[in-house]
Specification:
Length: 417
């Protein structure tokens, strides 16, 4: 009688419909379910077993579910393998976790994608541009539709590219701006700008290299806005306080070895009485001269100027031929004298010199460095044609019977430059 009572009590809390739907805690099970359990005080307790028990189930049906007490999660069989379907879920926004497949997260008009196949993550903007991209090959890009042509790219080897496809150097910058020139107007879209926005502060960049012995070789370049009465100076130097090369930013004057250049090019040499300027192809051995060239000099400031007395200097720039012996004791036709050789021999081996004077008088190095002139010759003695070739060889004739105490000849040498 007692057993029958419990069976009847169970039937009172169960509802069975004509379609064989079963309801527990309800007499109207949901039409979409075969079993509908309702309760506000208790839950559904499925079979509980260890992982070993679960995996030992023979030929599990697809959809079979158990609670695994080893992992404390609900597992179901998907027809091929057991799948962990629950437990304590990992919230990737608050905890670390592993994604088992592709994921896409939307936020307003932005989209974050994880691709487990290619090993990349992408952040897309509203316009569809890939704002951030990380590929499995170790390439990180910003605003890179195809990663490789992004505005900012970092390769796995550390090379950084700005506007550069695949940078081959530590830093590669490609200027994709519209600027077509510099020096012809305003500079726009420049490739690199380094600034210090704090007033009165310099901006400095440096480069360093080291010898095989580990000694640092450094160079600094930068702008000091305070120098030259706040005119500002750009400096390139070997040490932070040096002035190897400077530019006054108010007037463009360039200095070498001087911090405040006073002219378009201002050079301070290391030694007195030297300019500090060397011109490799313009030395005192140059034989090609420029006709009608002006004479240069230096003023009291050391500025190179055209000498104000250049014309009078040129007029004075000649040499009287030193005294030479010409035999006029007999008539002769076509006699010759090498004027340059005679001049050079006397100047380089003078018979006497004043105290402290150099042993030799400087001479021009080549016979063709002079123009040669005969300004007067006794016409009674030096008869016929008289010529001088470009090397200073004088050709003349002598009539000996006409020689007197007043017979003489004047020869002038004029340097070509």
């Amino acid at each position: 009688m007692k057993k029958q009572f419990y069976t009847l009590a169970a039937l009172l809390v169960m509802g069975i419909t004509a379609n064989a739907q079963v309801g527990i805690g309800t007499v109207t099970p949901d039409a979409s379910s075969m079993l509908d359990i309702k309760s506000t005080t208790a839950g559904f307790l499925m079979p509980r077993m260890t992982t070993a028990n679960r995996t030992a189930i023979a030929s599990p049906a697809a959809g079979l579910q158990v609670f695994d007490t080893t992992t404390n999660t609900i597992w179901f069989f998907d027809g091929t393998a057991w799948v962990n379907s629950g437990g304590t879920a990992t919230n990737i926004y608050t905890s670390n976790g592993t994604l088992s497949g592709n994921r896409s997260v939307n936020m307003a008009d932005k989209n974050l994608q994880f691709n487990s196949t290619t090993g990349t993550f992408v952040i897309n903007t509203a316009a569809g541009t890939q704002a951030f991209t990380q590929t499995g090959a170790g390439v990180f890009g910003i605003d890179a539709p195809n990663v490789s042509n992004g505005r900012f790219v970092v390769l796995e080897n550390g090379n950084v590219g700005i506007g550069k496809t695949l940078p081959a150097y530590n830093l590669s910058i490609v200027n994709n701006g519209t600027a077509t020139s510099i020096g012809g107007g305003a500079v726009t879209n420049n490739a690199l700008n380094i600034s210090n926005p704090t007033g009165g502060r310099s901006v400095v960049a440096s480069m360093s290299a080291f010898t095989t012995g580990g000694v640092a070789k450094e160079i600094y370049l930068g702008i000091n806005p305070n120098l030259n009465s706040d005119a500002g100076t750009f400096t390139l130097t070997r040490n932070a306080g040096g002035v190897d090369m400077t530019m006054d930013l108010s007037n463009g004057n360039v200095g070498i070895g001087v911090g405040a250049p006073g002219n378009k090019l201002h050079v301070t040499s290391a030694s007195a009485s030297t300019s500090g300027i060397r011109m490799t192809n313009l030395t005192n051995t140059v034989t090609t001269k420029t006709a009608n060239a002006a004479t240069l000099g230096v003023d009291a400031n050391g500025d190179i100027v055209i000498a104000s007395n250049a014309a009078s200097t040129a007029a004075k720039n000649f040499i009287y031929m030193p005294s030479i012996a010409i035999d006029v004791s007999a008539n002769v036709t076509g006699a010759t004298k090498n004027l340059y050789s005679l001049y050079s021999a006397q100047f380089t081996t003078p018979k006497a010199a004043s105290t402290g004077a150099p042993a030799a008088i400087p001479v021009l190095p080549a016979a063709t460095d002079f123009y040669y002139y005969v300004t007067y010759a006794d016409p009674a003695v030096f008869t016929g044609a008289m010529t001088i070739d470009a090397s200073g060889v004088l050709t003349y004739n002598v009539t000996a019977s006409a020689v007197t105490d007043a017979t003489f000849i004047n020869i002038v040498l004029v340097p070509k430059n």
